Amino acid sequence: MIDQYDEQEGYCRMLGHRLPFRYCRSANDELPCRKIADCWYDVFPVLEFLAANYSEEELKAAFGVQPRTRMATLIEIINRARGQQNG
Ligand code: SF4
After folding, report:
1. Is the distance from the beta carbon of residue 39 to the nearest atom of ligand 1 less than 6 Å?
2. Is residue 4 part of a domain?
3. Which residue, 16, 20, 33, 46, shows the most beta carbons closer than 10 Å to its own?
């Protein structure tokens, strides 16, 4: 369920104030903010959330993919989490 964490609130270092997760998951042209894993990893299982709610293409569009960047590694981790969920 994509809105299950919408009411969670956290401090945004980029904007300088608190905001709900609803904003973070749609801040990037309706796709997740590229900082979403850093900002939410200690609040709830955000990688599993991403794996469950976004396709690989959407994640690549959201995070950008350059060879061996941290985001490419992140997408690999999300895909692994997706594999664990499916089987
Ligand atoms: S995910 Fe993006 S918008 Fe949300 S708190 Fe982090 S930096 Fe701010």
Report:
1. yes
2. no
3. 46
